[in-house]
Amino acid sequence: MAAWGARLAGVRGVLLDISGVLYDSGEGGGKPIAGSVDAVARLKRSGLKVRFCTNESQKSRSRLVGELRSLGFNIHEGEVTAPPPAACQLLKERGLRPHLLVHDEVRSEFDQVDTSDPNCVVIADAGEGFSYQNMNKAFQVLMGLDTPVLISLGQGRYYKVTSGLMLDVGGYMKALEYACGVEAEVVGKPSPEFFKSALQEMGVEACQEKIKRMKR
């Protein structure tokens, strides 16, 4: 316990990744990584401010949190910073109307966003939704805009589930960048703005004290 306390000396808050750090997703709700449930519990008992940051865009926050809680994690939806809500805020602030290339599971998170007459494309980990037809439609929307805007929820190359490695959104994002001659705006890790928003939600300034971002 003394060694644990020494490692956290001067730390005001902790940002925790989820997939591949706390658990590996997969059928049946996934599998916790050894020691992670206890580590989260100890951090919370320490009195530190804890926030969970994820690029998960195949599940709603409520479903993700439900799965994690079923695995024994002490976590609540309000403690999770995820790309879909951040993207919705950005779209509203800039008056953007997206064509959505996202997983059906998270489409409802964009219900309050105007999607008529799209003037941008939002791409996320659409899973089986990454068909030629759907990618080509996103391409056509971008090519039809005078100033094409491509917003990607994360830019990961791949991620791990219990059954093995899975191709992530990054490869599809790069395909649209190349085909359309645009540079995507990334909402999610590793965007500095994403981490800044998590700190704001914790009520901690990065310049105040040391902030530990725990990642495997």
Question: What's the arrangement of secondary structure elements?
Answer:
Blueprint (H helix, E strand, L loop, with lengths): L1 H6 L3 E7 L5 E2 L6 E2 L3 H10 L3 E5 L7 H10 L9 E2 L1 H12 L3 E4 L2 H4 L12 E4 L8 H12 L6 E3 L5 E4 L2 E4 L1 H12 L4 E2 L5 H11 L7 E5 L2
Parallel strand pairs: 1-4, 1-12, 4-5, 6-7, 7-8, 8-11
Antiparallel strand pairs: 2-3, 9-10
Helix pairs in contact: 6-7
Explain briefly what this protein structure is:
The chain is α/β, with parallel strands linked by helices and 216 residues long. The protein contains eight helices and twelve strands. Helix 6 crosses helix 7.
Q: How would you characterize this protein structure?
A:
- It is a single chain.
- The chain is an alpha/beta fold and 216 residues long.
- α6 crosses α7 (169-180).
- 36% of the residues lie in helices and 20% in strands.
* Helix percent band: 25-40%
Form type: globular
Please give the largest β-sheet.
Answer: 4 strands, parallel
Low-confidence stretches: 209-216
Averaging pLDDT over every residue, what do you get?
88
Number of strands: 12
Order of helices and strands: HEEEHEHEHEHEHEEEHEHE
Share of residues in strands: 15-25%
Taking strands numbered 1, 2, ... along the chain, how are they ordered across the largest sheet? Answer: 5-4-1-12
Structural class label: alpha/beta
- Number of helices in the DSSP assignment: 8
What is the CA-based Rg, rounded?
Answer: 18 Å
- Span between termini: 21 Å
